[in-house]
Amino acid sequence: MKIYEKTAEDSGTRARLGKITTRHGVVETPVFMPVGTAGTVKSLPQHLLEELGVQILLGNTYHLYLRPGPEVVRDLGGLHGFMAWAGAILTDSGGYQVFSHQDLRRIREEGVRFRSHIDGSSHLLTPEKAIDIQHALGSDIAMVLDDCTPYPSTWEKTRQSLELSARWARRCREALPPDQGGPSLFGIVQGGMYPDLRQASLERTLEAGDFEGYALGGFSVGEPKDLMRDLVSRMAPQLPEDKPRYLMGVGTPLDLVEGVCCGIDMFDCVMPTRNARNGCLFTSRGKVIIKNSRYLRDDSPLDPECGCRVCRRYSKAYLRHLFMSREILSAVLNTYHNIHFYLDIMRKIRQCIRLNHLADFLKSLRGVYGEDASLPPGGGDS
Q1: Under DSSP, is residue 186 helix (H, G, I), strand (E, B) or coil?
Q2: Domain 4-269: CATH class, spelled out
Q3: Contacts of 69 (CB under 8 A, 6+ apart)
């Protein structure tokens, strides 16, 4: 089933405008998907997400499987009804979360045996079960179960990992045949940081089935930024032209623009939400670490060029006070602003593609965010 339509291209890059048609509306691309791990974007209610113009959210199979359970969600109207969200939802298969709890899991051909980080109970996540869970959740776009290769990893271990991911992808496609009324299914290209293995993984994934979209996975796992950029620029143009292209778990504001220039359509990352809760705010002039003492008496807006509710109403001094006092409102306002900033980046990207000015926008953003917008200590899943 075809879900993607390309509507325009940028003449100076590989960037493209498009539309993804889902059961819960049309998503304009390039698009950023805020991470709502457990059925919520932390600290923001759904009406504020709608106000911000969020088109599609990301939910997570692993967390929703453990709590409250897919049967509960299904019986309460699927994830859309359960969380009262009318827009589109993409669900991750849970592979990355299992990867992140390496001391609690064992990978076999059958699937992944893991222990819950909540209560220590034992579970087996197979490709078929990952599909069943996502079907019960009622997601619009589901992801195949994959083995996320750690960094660093040897060539041989990476090869074995990508082969396993390809076999799992085939099983996921067989468990969810196309045009069966369920979610659209995306395949995932792995292969670690080896160009030849990335190429091999692409070939194996294409052989595994005709997926409705394709993702590049296994990035932002500790590899050098230049290596990630090189591999994305190599691989993105090779993903099928008539399908959505998704770069998973990436990234900084600069990563978004660079990824779009390579031909990527979809992004998700915990950075805007997690950074917000830790007092790191994105602005048109660069990052603001709001706890810094310089903001104690600063009555200016966080970003004078931003039109969001936070910047129109509150001062940096007040935002600093909330953060230093550990007020709940700090997370709400900071997250609202950061999500607005990311979505505004995407709106500007789409407009620049229409006008063939994306290369100029990339140059200007490099002047502000030339260094990585790294995460401060602490955080959570989203």
Answers
A1: strand
A2: alpha beta
A3: none
Question: How far apart (Å, rounded) are the C-alpha atoms in residues 212 and 21?
Answer: 11
Which amino acid type is present at position 154? T
pLDDT of residue 372: 52
Read off the amino acid at residue 121.
S
Cα distance between residue 249 and residue 223, in whole Å:
13
What pLDDT does residue 155 have?
A: 98
Tokens encoding 286: 């660069």
Mean per-residue pLDDT pooled into runs of 10, the chain (382 residues): 96 97 98 97 98 98 96 98 98 82 83 91 95 97 95 97 98 93 96 98 97 97 95 98 97 97 98 98 98 98 98 98 98 98 98 97 95 42 68
Q: What is the pLDDT of residue 69?
A: 98
pLDDT at site 180: 79
Beta bridge partners of 283: 286
Catalytic residue among 10, 92, 140, 303: 92
- Does residue 330 contact residue 291 with C-beta atoms inside 8 Å? no
Distance CA 288, CA 337 (A): 12
Alpha carbon distance 179, 214 (integer Å) = 17
Told to judge if 268 belongs to the known catalytic residues of this protein, a careful annotator would answer yes
- Where, residue-wise, is CATH 3.20.20.105 in the chain? 4-269
Looking at 10, 147, 268, 344, which residue is catalytic?
A: 268
CA dihedral 348, 354, 359, 364 (to 10 degrees): -30
Q: Which positions ≥6 away from 63 have C-beta within 8 Å?
A: 37, 38, 94, 97, 381
Specify the pLDDT at position 374.
Answer: 44
